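Reviewers of the previous submission asked for a worked example of the structure-prediction workflow described in the proposal, so we include one complete record here. The input consisted solely of the amino acid sequence. No template or homolog information was supplied to the procedure at any stage.
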Amino acid sequence: MILKELDVHPSSARYLRNGELITLIFDISSWSDESSAILYFKAAHHLLTVLPIGQNDVTTIISAIMGSYENPNHLENLLILLVHLIDAPEHHDVIIEILLNLGALDILISILSQEKLTIRYLSLAILGRLLPSANRYVNLQLSYGLSMLVNPLARHPLAIPIYLALRGILLNYNTWIPIIGETMKLSEMSIKPIEPLPEIRSPSAFPLILEMICRCEDEDLRNEILQDLCQLLGRESSCLQILKIDGWQDWLFRWMTIDGATKLVKPMYSALI
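From that input alone, the workflow returned the following structure tokens.
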């Protein structure tokens, strides 16, 4: 029986969280099998939602993530736990501030090269929630873009869920990055037009997406993504956002070698006239 099935009084939960249970939850070496780990994760999620979140809790989760690189199943469960805590209205602002102070951006980027698609998707989903609040993100956009994501992501073929997560970062709005669960599975994700048409707010993600398209060997997927990007460029304000990136002519002309990419140029040049 997991704690969520019990009537846990906050005072009892506090005692349990400060006692041996929280140690068991995050002591990866003590997990004997996957089913036990899942029970512990559910218990952790319940305890952390019963009580106010604190820096020690978030630090413990981040430490467990860093210690789970060699265990994809545990790492996936920890990322799911983290993203649900971020999305809880009562925790959102506090946990994002703590994560940024702990250097979570670099940690999440470091696990983007993981082979398991779910882990890469969840990492991008969390990045999409952190970047709008990151104090250094303005400088990141103007100077470096999001090029540091290319190498880890390019170790594996581009997939629809990865594109959807990158599109969510491009739009700078986390509701465009759905979280997997009982009603959302990676295998069922598809690229659909967004209505009403949103505005591109994080243009530095655009050259990153084009770089991933350039490395994509699936012609059908490339064309589908290009079609979707053309739809997003239907707003002149979005084109103007992209044209604010330093050296946009260089990377745009270079990627015009991609079949079908020339269709992206017309709306941006129209915005200049």
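The two ends are 65 Å apart (CA to CA). We consider this example representative of the routine output the project will generate in years two and three.
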